[in-house]
Design goal:
Layout lengths: L2 H34 L2 E7 L6 H16 L4 E6 L10 H6 L5 E4 L24 H10 L2 H11 L4 E8 L6 E3 L13 E3 L3 H8 L3 E3 L6 H6 L5 E2 L4 H7 L1 H4 L2 E4 L8 E7 H5 L3 H35 L4 E4 L2 H21 L1 H24 L3 H9 L9
Parallel strand pairs: 1-2, 1-3, 6-7, 6-8, 9-11
Antiparallel strand pairs: 3-10, 4-10, 5-9
């Protein structure tokens, strides 16, 4: 065999040998990854296991599990399983939990500016518009700055816009602001300051403790959130009067939270999946809420004998006036509170004007189809 031919054969054998090794490596790599097993995270929600809010937390976990093909598995426990409902931020920040599902307003005691993500009138914005401010109007950066200011070792994803929350459950219909004075009432966040200013004796309780407190007479009245949660938690068992519409939580949303160290240790691709899963879960939650809340609203009237009343405009106006005093005081005490407030006001002035000028009033269309002589009967 010539020298050149021997060299060619040797080179070919070397190439084939290298290709074989590479082929084995490419086959073996997934097996090695699988052998290491999926990444698991232990989470807790701030909600009782039976509440639809805990269902939303499970929904998010399932989306992440499905989208990662099982490579990341999030186990979601109900409120109190590891830490108290109001202790979620500390639990996640310290790494006792890998993550959690709740609302930012529950951390009000840590930094009162957190309540601006949902506790109040939103300056005319609904919860979806407030989420728009968060993503595109500077809110995301401000929240990062806010959590850093209190040393919270977390990554936060606000999501899941909530409809306007009721004024709450009472022993009798509320016709004027004087009817509320002196009542022992449950609420959270800046709403504590607002209702205290309206003359109520306020007590902040987690969702799972409210109905029992009303049943034992520790509360005269309370608000939680929506028709489905309120029905599941048993409000119709202790009250038959619910006042709809309020400015105390007109634009609230949920929060998905990760321990920062655990989150940053995830592969970049997995972090991207989580960010997209948050937005997918946010929209899915909105669709589910429309279906479930409207069904329970209807059934509470037809099966549970609950009477719903609209909150008088005089009370709504008083809420706005007292809220103005509260945020002015907080802004004077907390520069970061003022910075966030001014950012929201600027965004709301532009977007709410656009929305009101653009969106047609649905009441006319509803009355046309479902009023006394509604067109729906003729179609």
């Amino acid at each position: 065999m010539s020298k050149n031919k021997q060299s060619t054969v040797a080179t070919r054998r070397k190439f084939l040998g290298g290709a074989a090794v590479a082929g084995v490596a490419s086959v073996m790599a997934p097996s090695v990854a699988k052998a290491q097993g999926p990444i698991t995270m232990r989470w807790q929600s701030t909600w009782p296991a039976k509440d639809i809010f805990h269902e939303y937390a499970l929904d998010f976990g399932k989306k992440v599990n499905d989208m990662t093909g099982g490579d990341l598995k999030i186990e979601v426990l109900p409120a109190g399983a590891v830490v108290p409902a109001f202790g979620l931020l500390d639990g996640v920040s310290k790494g006792v939990l890998d993550g959690g599902h709740g609302v930012l307003v529950y951390h009000y005691g840590k930094q009162n500016a957190l309540a601006l993500w949902g506790s109040g009138p939103g300056f005319g914005m609904d919860a979806n518009m407030l989420l728009s401010w968060h993503k595109y109007g500077g809110g995301k950066e401000l929240l990062t700055e806010l959590y850093a200011s209190i040393g919270a070792n977390v990554v936060s994803f606000p999501y899941g816009p909530m409809p306007t929350q009721p004024l709450g459950w009472f022993k009798k219909p509320i016709t004027k602001a004087e009817d509320m004075k002196g009542l022992k009432y449950r609420t959270v966040g800046i709403s504590i300051d607002v209702f205290t200013g309206m003359g109520l004796a306020v007590n902040a309780l987690p969702g799972g403790e409210i109905v029992s407190a009303m049943d034992r007479g520790l509360l005269d009245a309370a608000e939680f959130n929506n028709a489905t949660s309120d029905r599941i938690l048993g409000f119709p068992d202790v009250s038959k009067v619910c006042m709809l519409q309020s400015y105390h939580q007109n634009a609230e949303q949920f929060e998905i939270m990760f321990n920062k160290d655990k989150y940053n240790a995830l592969p970049e691709k997995m972090r991207a999946i989580i960010a997209n899963a948050v937005e997918a879960a946010s929209q899915d939650m909105s669709w589910k809420a429309v279906d479930r809340y409207s069904t329970d609203y209807q059934e509470m009237q037809s099966k549970d004998n609950v009477k719903f009343y609209k909150t008088p405009d005089s009370i709504l106006k008083q809420q706005l006036e007292i809220y103005d005093d509260v945020v002015k005081k907080r802004s004077g005490e907390n520069p970061l509170f003022k910075k966030i407030l001014q950012s929201q006001l600027k965004f709301a002035e532009r977007t709410v004007r656009w929305e009101m000028d653009t969106v047609v009033n649905r009441r006319m269309a509803f009355d046309h189809y479902f009023g006394a002589n509604g067109a729906a009967k003729k179609i």
